[in-house]
Write a structure and sequence with these properties.
- Helix content is 77%, strand content 0%.
- The radius of gyration is 21 Å and the shape is globular.
Length: 227
Amino acid sequence: MDFLCLNPIGFACLTVYSVALYASPTVRAQYAERHDGHFPQVQPNDIAFAGHALVLSLVILSQTLVYKRGVQHQLSRFHRTVILLILSTIAIALLLAWSGWLIWLDFIILLSLLKLYVTAAKMVPQAWYNYQRKSTVGWSIENIVMDMTGGILSLIQLVIDSALDHDWRGITGNPGKLGLSFLALGFDTLFLIQHFILYRGAEHEDESERVVDDPERDRLIPPAPPV
């Protein structure tokens, strides 16, 4: 549940960040003033990615209201505090931007940094859990391969767009896209090493233990229909 609640917040921040850098005259003008007349390196596919992820993460979160099981629908006390801090930070920064104490560009950049925190908060526990179990059984490595591919392509696009615009500062001027690419590359590389090298031999052993030790398995899996 912690993951499911954090995810929409992160992607909402990324969606607003991408849309503002792409379409807001005020934000784009402030960016150009700070970057010698160059505009942000944000493309329509960046907005599509963020919006698509936001919608699907909200759909998955809403499913927890329908398919409740035990305590899985309860948010931990720690992440209640974290989410409250994130929302409070956004609210305070928004008031500062409206009052003129903070320029809108910096507010938008703050949203991207909050998204980076959410992404790291999703990946660190998984890496630690894999380490504790010494196994990656029950976890989709295909998702990691796709995520890493997306991170590489996103980084390549950012570099190409900046090169075509003759503005290498455009790479660092998009901390959301750059940071997400590096987080994907770093953590996904770690996950691949865990899956294919460090814990490769433990896969079958862990799977057999999971099946034997899971008392809920027979109850949750319906019996096979008669032949």
